[in-house]
Amino acid sequence: xxxxxxxxxxxxxxxxxxxxxxxxxxxxxxxxxxxxxxxxxxxxxxxxxxxxxxxxxxxxxxxxxxxxxxxxxxxxxxxxxxxxxxxxxxxxxxxxxxxxxxxxxxxxxxxxxxxxxxxxxxxxxxxxxxxxxxxxxxxxxxxxxxxxxxxxxxxxxxxxxxxxxxxxxxxxxxxxxxxxxxxxxxxxxxxxxxxxxxxxxxxxxxxxxxxxxxxxxxxxxxxxxxxxxxxxxxxxxxxxxxxxxxxxxxxxxxxxxxxxxxxxxxxxxxxxxxxxxxxxxxxxxxxxxxxxxxxxxxxxxxxxxxxxxxxxxxxxxxxxxxxxxxxxxxxxxxxxxxxxxxxxxxxxxxxxxxxxxxxxxxxxxxxxxxxxxxxxxxxxxxxxxxxxxxxxxxxxxxxxxxxxxxxxxxxxxxxxxxxxxxxxxxxxxxxxxxxxxxxxxxxxxxxxxxxxxxxxxxxxxxxxxxxxxxxxxxxxxxxxxxxxxxxxxxxxxxxxxxxxxxxxxxxxxxxxxxxxxxxxxxxxxxxxxxxxxxxxxxxxxxxxxxxxxxxxxxxxxxxxxxxxxxxxxxxxxxxxxxxxxxxxxxxxxxxxxxxxxxxxxxxxxxxxxxxxxxxxxxxxxxxxxxxxxxxxxxxxxxxxxxxxxxxxxxxxxxxxxxxxxxxxxxxxxxxxxxxxxxxxxxxxxxxxxxxxxxxxxxxxxxxxxxxxxxxxxxxxxxxxxxxxxxxxxxxxxxxxxxxxxxxxxxxxxxxxxxxxxxxxxxxxxxxxxxxxxxxxxxxxxxxxxxxxxxxxxxxxxxxxxxxxxxxxxxxxxxxxxxxxxxxxxxxxxxxxxxxxxxxxxxxxxxxxxxxxxxxxxxxxxxxxxxxxxxxxxxxxxxxxxxxxxxxxxxxxxxxxxxxxxxxxxxxxxxxxxxxxxxxxxxxxxxxxxxxxxxxxxxxxxxxxxxxxxxxxxxxxxxxxxxxxxxxxxxxxxxxxxxxxxxxxxxxxxxxxxxxxxxxxxxxxxxxxxxxxxxxxxxxxxxxxxxxxxxxxxxxxxxxxxxxxxxxxxxxxxxxxxxxxxxxxxx
Length: 1066
Known about the structure:
Belongs to the Rab3-GAP catalytic subunit family. Residues 495-521, 982-1014 are annotated as: Disordered. By secondary structure, the chain is an alpha+beta fold. Among the domains are: 21-48 and 58-282 and 1021-1062, no CATH class; 285-317 and 325-386 and 837-982, no CATH class; 643-788, no CATH class. The chain has 36 helices and 19 strands. The strands form 4 sheets. The chain has a 13-stranded mixed beta sheet, sandwiched between helices. It is elongated and about 130 Å long. 34% of the residues are buried.
């Protein structure tokens, strides 16, 4: 038994050479960092020895600047990630790096003076240069770590698969492993671990610094602000407690034990320095009704209504089919969802600030730097709600995708059957009476006369807008047929006296390029009949959402086509010339209408073609003329028919028949070639491709040639094949040389080799018989073609109709948006002579043309059109805000906002001290002597400010700007609006300045509200960045280092600290 026990103990061996999970985790981190080339980031020369404060100071390399504005740009950030495991938990190791600005401009740092001690210089690597720079403070977007610390690069470890790091011990274990890996590789990039869930934005981190320093990053978060830490002085006490947790304030400064002690103490660079940057943020996310871009009480005298045609007021008297009209009647809201106003004190010594429960020096109007950020809706549904023009096109496209392939006119029969079986009073009661009141309210006879004469009241866009508004307010309704008929009648109105004159004054250098690009779009000419119809279809369906209305419209449109066909009247607004050529550069629907017009033109031509003394031959589809087996011999006694004019050579001399030299060749009257739309042409090409016999293919394609031969023989009795070639193909009648017996050459003419060897032309000539054009079978059977088009239109489905009209609707929308864009650009350029950043209105015409050509309209909407329209709405919204604020601010002076944009040279606005006495808002700064004028503003200042608000993350300005006063006015109006909405009239607190006069009660500073008008509400959030340099941690004999603490006080309480410790002298 003893032997067996010894044997068992022999095999119980622990192999300590096997790597543990912890060691493998460290090795994996090192491998990933090596692969990303993040090793040896410390200068080797600084690792030779640990410098003391008396050591010479090497110069830091000049770094390229990374400001908070650049840190907020998501396009400047690069991200890499790799998967890693620790035990059984999977992690994602991510590396965030900022692409720095190419300009080698040094950043402004706090606590790094020009003659800084060497120890402080050595520990100031890239991470501390980022955290010490005030230029990196307050990035408005980006990763939370960028917001808390201003870092330009960092590593982040995130657990995957729903795992969380919920305990501090586990986080310390991971950070300890990372610290070992960073030290082994001399990597100075901070390393963070995500703590708890991602929505809490909690992190712990460690940073390896050169020469034996290490920075510890910690973040705490409370759901509520502790009562003892609501003010800066209390946060400063907390910061100092963290710095001097073990030692007193004065004993924590290093004092060398040598003869240079007096010189060391006299150096100001060794004194602890604490400075703080402060920012108060004010949020405005509830706009008063008058500030909303879309509201029912929108002033018709607004600058937008007069200046911009986007809102459609200038089109109220225009025809309903001229362009697609968006209805804003039932739209209430604004694309601008929030304003974030920040008042900032960039860098202030902590002893100069008093901020406690009893007194505060941090008054927002004393802040030297203000900044404003505009947040627009990011929800795709909301953006579609406001982009009414593009959304109309999207609704129209979706109608075609979900519609069945049944004929569109079947909806009329189905609706009739439903009315016969059951009569719904709710569907037929209110709309006709309301529309009657809109048009001719009193006498029914007057209404019927208006309908019969199609008065302009029935066809203007104002009536259609009212009709749409009523339909949208009462649900999906049917429009009475008499109104639909009136709109269709107006489509064919050829009176061009009321056409709007295009404004050519707003053309820029880019317009020609855009016009060239738009000319390539395969659609329909502007203001053509197909263009008008497409616009009217979209306008009627846009708000009613009732396919039955489209069926009615299509029925009346087909009736008009048949009327024009029977009466022999050409369709108006279709062809600029009188030829029968089909424009294959247009869409198929426009080609169909062109073909129909060609049929009408051929019908008119056929009826007036014959002479009065010749009886018209009766045309029939079943009439065929076969060639005779033997062609009769032609002589001088035969009667020529169908002659047009004598043929002449290049010298103007008549040409004669070869067989009858005294008889000139007569050019015959021929048939025009049959026009074909692209779908018919494609079917013909497909049919010919299926025929294997080459001679049969040529015969099928030679119908026009045979007709010309027959007409030529009828006009020129006794002619030869050579005579026909001399007229029809003169290039094949060439000069030939022949020699006689006397060796004298004489020039003769004959057929080319191609014609001599061609059997097809000879065969056709032998087959052709003398037949004038009036007795030939028609090459272009216009009657058959017209009936086929009408029959196809009568059986067309709603999906096919939408498919045919989509290119026209798309181009119409594009042209309208580009017109609105030109108006904005003209407004900007005419009122802002400087360089304006208008990139937010940039468009990619190449991409638009490509997506349009391939018919990907959904992607065209999402990628290009909706972004363009929403960018214009941003400009409209911001300009509207300043318009109303300006009008409110200068209500007593009766100054108009529009006057700023009429004469830039002479029209300016100056706030004098007299106005400042009347307006409390003008007393905005206590730090600067403003003098006799508070500020001067021009229209160009507003435009430039708006452009920067749109294109930049936030716009900085000073508290003395006039725009700052208008912004405060907007915040005050919003605060008053929210107060009035939340309280009843009897519960409101009147101010001391309330009076009973009408003038005083209308003034903004005498409204009943709990705070003074023109003042900012309490800040929504407070942020503090406290920086300290020259303080030794963790021991008083440690080398001094830099420290930082970020505090955020809003709905929650958050502190992000970065304290550095000397791990060499601790």
